[in-house]
Amino acid sequence: MSRYDRLAYTSSVRRVQQEMGSATAADRRLRGAEGDEAEPLTASVAEFIRSLDGFLFASVGETGWPYIQFRGGPPGFVHVLDAHTLGYLDVRGNRQYITTGNVRGDDRVALFFIDHARQARLKLFGHATAVPVGDDPVLAERLGSPRTEGTVEQLVTIRVEAFAWNCQNHITRRFSERELSDALAPVHERLARLERLERENAALRAELAARD
Hints:
Pyridoxamine 5'-phosphate oxidase family protein, seven-stranded antiparallel beta sheet, 212 residues, alpha+beta, elongated, Pnp Oxidase, Chain A, 39% helix
């Protein structure tokens, strides 16, 4: 976590922390942040990434303006290839290729993973590459299941530099269709049993009325 802070806390950021009275807390987070080695992903981070069905991908263009793109797919479409590398198959979209162009100019990116249901979020710095899918058939096969539906165009990999968990404050709880379906399965089963009982009761009443 301290490496992420060291990369994020620029001189301008530090001046604002002084102005806003949070410099002391920031100093504590920066302790032990020396060194330039990339921070390895932990087991909990890897599990969190694999559990999600989407994330935000931020890059910066040659004009200096940032660009944010959403990438989605089935849980696990972002593969944790090793302790320092993420990867996924990029499928054809609107064919603007803004993120791809930005990454070719400057491979530094930021990724933001959020789980609304569990009110958890993870931020990550890394170096990204995007190459045609035919450049590495072995990697393409490894990233092939699960993957986002559609025509695969590129192999995207992110070499992770640092990551940090964000606070849970102000994360609105939302649930995906799959999460709602799992949570409501017992309710649906109970309703189905009640419907069967109602049909059986109706048939029994009809049978008793016929006897009378």
